[in-house]
Here is the input.
Amino acid sequence: MSIQWFPGHMTRARRQIQEKLKLIDLAIELLDARIPLSSRNPMVDEILLDKPRLIVLNKADLADAKTTEQWMADFKAEGHASIAVDSSTGTKVNEIPVMAKQILHEKIERQIAKGMNPRAIRALIVGIPNVGKSTLINRLAGRSIAETGDRPGVTKGQQWIKVGKEMELLDTPGILWPKFEDQLVGYRLAMTGAIREQILNVEDIAFFAVKELVKRYWAALAERFDLDKPPSDPDDSDEIVRVMEEIGRKRGCLVSGGRVDLEKASGIILRELRAGKLGRITLETPDMM
Ligand code: GDP
Here is the structure.
């Protein structure tokens, strides 16, 4: 599932997107609303250049709605239109073609002024693995098209999918790599499920997650796992481990001698967090940029 990105893969992924850019009017940059920074490709501006762009914050159902608004205001200030959607249920997905038309209205009007019949807007979805590209393609298509899962370098025949009358979408998305050289980014990606446990250890990911939650979402963590009071120092690793142990005890993750099975507790914490059971959680705000 997860890709090991080597320089050759990146070069090939980039080249594939640049080939597809020649065919399209609009790039749809898909980000994870919970981690808009970590889910963004570090070279996206260089790759997309001045191609008209719509930023789609996906998995908005799992993210803090207020922070999502802040991100959208921030992207607007950067000169990019954006929209927040939930591709798994389709919420707001219908607005994507409407926004695409708004972004390209000058071009469309020029065509009309020249007496041309404007053709459907051609679009390409780009984003890192697991951000929801295939899910969104299937939603926009209204049927099952894209295979979930990614393999850069594997190309199949490309086709246009009709999205209503006014938009067409390439059926294979552009796969971009994340900013994984930064360890914090790696943990945030792992915490949200974008990269799998074979790369980072499950207890390390859960430790990172609990630390972030203690700092930013203590109330949600305490409510979900019935915890008493927050650690006095969230930067003290021992205190974070104690919170993990308490969660483990509450969930009956015990091994002989009454010790807590931290690996099992870690799995529970991550599963429930990713499924949205702790509520809507965003890990990155625009002021972190
Ligand atoms: P891709 O690798 O970018 O094509 O990502 P997928 O489309 O395979 O999606 C990765 C995972 O995220 C799948 O388990 C999807 O069900 C899930 N997913 C995609 N979009 C959303 C969304 O908007 N909300 C939620 N909650 N889950 C989503």
